[in-house]
Design goal:
- The chain has 180 residues and is an alpha+beta fold.
- It has 2 domains: 113 residues, no CATH class; 50 residues, Arc Repressor Mutant, subunit A, CATH 1.10.10.10.
- The protein is built from 6 helices and 10 strands.
- The strands form 4 sheets. Strands 1-2-3 form a 3-stranded antiparallel sheet, with no helix packed on it. Strands 9-8-10 form a 3-stranded antiparallel sheet. The protein has a two-stranded antiparallel ribbon with strand order 4-5.
- Helix 3 crosses helix 5.
- The longest helix is centred in the middle third of the chain and has 14 residues.
- It binds zinc ion.
């Protein structure tokens, strides 16, 4: 009989949107797999991502903007806070690449793989006048939203937090570097 873990006394804010109490079974490898909620994109569908929810609950803080919750155990269904760690999107790509090398089918099947891989491209931060500020090899910049940086690079928005952003491959030294 596997042991079962129930999460009681959820914060009131959380209860307002989902009153179902998360229940997990503990697998032989110590992973907590959710049995009370279904899966969404391969993750327990507790507020859209059981692993993110559990990391946040356990660490008593929100996940910092642009950061991801990674599985040390390589089991995307797992919500055991001891198997989770915070990381950057770049770290997650490295994980996915390593997994891909070990097992190509599995790596390419990761639902977030394509999105994260594109977002891990090096970006250049520019002033609104197009002057170079800094380069960020992972596509992640502390204090900024990675998705907004990349939508600026793709020309979907004109700036993010008062800066222009371009992909390194699109950056022209001395050029006008207007976003594509
Ligand atoms: Zn686990």
């Amino acid at each position: 009989m596997p042991s079962v873990i129930r999460i009681k006394n959820l914060p009131k804010k959380k209860l307002a949107t989902n009153t179902k109490e998360p229940v997990f079974v503990v697998t032989s490898s110590g992973c907590w797999e959710c049995i009370s909620h279904g899966l969404k994109n391969g993750y327990a569908n507790i507020f859209g991502g059981g692993h993110r929810f559990m990391w946040s609950l356990w660490n008593k803080k929100e996940i910092p903007d642009g950061m991801v919750v990674r599985h040390k155990c390589d089991n995307s269904k797992c919500c055991n806070p001891h198997h989770l760690e915070i990381g950057t999107q770049y770290d997650n790509v490295q994980d996915a690449v390593k997994r891909g090398r070990r097992n190509p089918a599995r790596g390419s099947q990761l639902p977030q793989f394509g999105k994260i891989a594109r977002n891990a491209r090096p970006v250049i931060q520019l002033t609104m006048d197009g002057e170079f500020v800094s380069k960020h090899p992972n596509g992640y910049v502390d204090g900024f939203s990675a998705s907004k940086i990349h939508s600026t690079c793709k020309g979907k928005q004109s700036q993010h937090k008062g800066y222009k952003w371009v992909y390194e491959e699109d950056y022209i030294i001395g050029g006008n570097n207007s976003c594509k």
